[in-house]
Write a structure and sequence with these properties.
With about 550 residues, this protein is mainly alpha-helical. Helix content is about 75%, strand content about 0%. It has two domains: about 15-50 and about 355-510, MetI-like fold; about 50-330 and about 515-559, MetI-like fold (Orthogonal Bundle), CATH 1.10.3720. The longest helix has about 35 residues, at about 340-370.
Length: about 550
């Protein structure tokens, strides 16, 4: 055993200090968190298995092919769109210089502040038949409604466009980081061998950045299959809308569970693909010989094309929706300071704050357990906890409601038989079960932020704390948490904003008469009261800007 291990395991006087006791506590807490994150997926699988074959046979004959084809088409369009916009813009702002490049380098992140369903409300208001674009077209030309063709915004293509505009920053950020880390040597060698700039990019730079780009695209795809608000509003029949329809409209919980299992299998397949892509394809730069390629200066038509390519996503994904939502909110009858909206805001903040605190606390337990006991068990616990991010909110909701509803019903039956007391639904309709669903959904984001900060702490700091008589709890409280405060605040902010925007789990699991800003926006939009929906949508967007501003600051510093 090394000196460092001796210091970690024993106190100065040879007494074992908190080794197994403190570490044991964190191992128990970490596995409770990990198994809790795994519970919804296991519950969905069991509910689907016990739902009988009649339901799934009927689904296979009726709606399942349509759900599958539409979901696959949506995934393909979003993957292609986010790859093209994210990779192309990242290459231009990183490897070239043109007017406005420094501004666009930061502005390209801004659409990340919007949930896709908010963008859908704004563009429907503008592009639908009664919207300003088609109304102006009819007034100018004198055409009637049947005299011209106009792209239908409420379609699979329209939903894909909304998702591409808000999800391409995932690809952009990862591709930009990969391009910045590439050495100029390989690219310049390709140029020296007679390849033009486009050929060198396609044959050298793009393959070297492929793992990062693939991770960004797969992340966008997972967000796509998890989306409910956009596809529901546009009337696009995907697995996400099918789960909600089966659960609420048809009252078929077995069918909902089996559809959820299909979507879960698709999501986990994507997660495995993402992990396999990262594991096989890696790029290492040449250490001290790494020289970043000097950006090429663009002028004339090339500069104009670069400005256009990078500015269009910013205009369509951020500036135009903001302007439209503000104009809609002024024309609405919704008062943000009315009692109802104060309640909506308070409910949203309550859920987001509670979920953020509990999720980050659970992430700390998992991350610190990995620090104390590195190995297969701790890695497996972290892997289970991260699975929730690959699972749509509707699947998590079904996976939690099924077992806890059974528990509530069994407890109520036993209490009535034993004591003549009706307990009702103690857990199923509570805020805390909804908070637990948020924790499962966003645990990966909190754990990633915490682990990112923890990775910067040398193991000698742990040894020094143990040599001064600190057990695991003291080391966490006095050393880790003070140093990792920025990472913890980042994790809290990310989870807070994600919960504010989350829709499907909230719609399914929220307590009676407990609505949030996202639910209110969805309800008003479903009733075609788009101007009213603009008010809660603006609040969600403003809150979503907070982590985007942090990301923009990091983007500016790294240049």
């Amino acid at each position: 055993m090394t000196v460092a291990n001796d210091l970690i395991e024993y106190a100065p006087h040879g007494r074992r200090r908190g080794g197994k006791t403190g570490g044991g506590i964190f191992s128990v807490l970490a596995w409770v968190v990990a198994l809790s994150c795994l519970l919804p997926m296991v519950a969905v699988a069991l509910a689907a298995a016990f739902g009988g074959t009649g339901t799934i046979s009927h689904l296979a004959e009726t709606v399942l092919p349509g759900y599958s084809l539409t979901t696959l088409a949506l995934v393909a369009m979003v993957a292609l769109g986010t790859f093209a916009i994210g990779t192309g813009s990242a290459w231009l702002v990183t490897m070239t210089r043109f007017p406005g490049a420094r501004f666009l380098e930061i502005a390209l992140v801004l659409p990340l502040a919007f949930p896709a369903y908010v963008l859908a409300y704004a563009y429907t208001h503008v592009l639908d038949h009664p919207g300003i674009v088609q109304s102006t077209l009819r007034e100018v030309t004198g055409w009637g409604p049947r005299d011209y063709w106009f792209p239908e915004i409420r379609s699979t293509g329209g939903a894909a466009a909304m998702l591409v505009l808000v999800l391409y920053p995932y690809v952009y950020l990862l591709a930009r980081a990969a391009f910045m880390q590439q050495s100029a040597g390989a690219f310049l060698a390709a140029r020296a061998l007679g390849k033009n700039a486009w050929q060198a990019f396609w044959l050298v730079s793009l393959p070297m950045a492929r793992p990062a780009i693939a991770s960004g695209v797969l992340l966008a795809v997972m967000e796509t299959i998890a989306d409910f608000g956009t596809v529901s509003y546009f009337g696009v029949q995907t697995f996400a809308t099918g789960i909600y329809t089966s659960w609420f409209s048809l009252g078929d919980r077995g069918g909902a569970a089996q559809l959820a299992l299909c979507l879960l299998g698709f999501a986990l397949t994507l997660a495995v693909m993402e992990r396999a892509t990262r594991g096989r394809a890696k790029y290492h730069h040449a250490g001290k010989h790494h020289n970043q390629m000097p950006p090429a200066k663009l002028g004339g038509i090339k500069a104009a094309v670069a400005v256009f390519f990078c500015a269009v996503p910013v205009v369509l994904g951020f500036l135009l929706p903001v302007a439209v939502l503000f104009s809609m909110s002024f024309a609405s009858e919704q008062n943000l300071f009315s009692r109802r909206y104060i309640d909506f805001t308070a409910n949203s903040i309550t859920l987001a704050a509670a979920a953020a605190v509990l999720t980050v606390a659970a992430a700390v337990c998992l991350g610190f357990y990995q620090r104390l006991r590195p190995g297969r068990l701790s890695s497996l616990a972290a892997y289970f906890a991260r699975l929730g991010y690959a699972v749509p909110g509707g699947v998590i909701a079904v996976g939690l409601i099924v077992p806890f509803a059974a528990f509530d019903n069994a407890l109520d039956a036993w209490m009535r038989e034993a004591f003549g007391i009706r307990t009702g639904l103690l857990v199923t309709g509570s805020i805390w079960l909804l908070v637990a669903a948020y924790g499962v959904r966003f645990m990966a984001a909190a754990l990633g932020a915490y682990e990112g900060g923890q990775a910067t702490m040398h193991s000698n700091m742990d040894a020094a704390a143990r040599s001064l008589g600190q057990g695991p709890m003291g080391m966490l409280r006095r050393v880790h948490l003070p140093i990792l405060t920025p990472s913890l605040l980042t994790a809290l902010l990310i989870v807070f904003v994600d919960v504010m925007k989350e829709l499907p789990a909230t719609l399914i699991m929220r307590p009676f008469n407990f609505d949030t800003l996202a639910v209110q926006a969805h309800r008003l939009a479903a009733d075609e009261r788009l101007e009213g929906a603009a008010v809660p949508s603006l609040v969600i967007m403003v809150v979503g800007l907070l982590p985007v501003i942090l990301i923009c600051r990091q983007v500016g510093r790294r240049r």
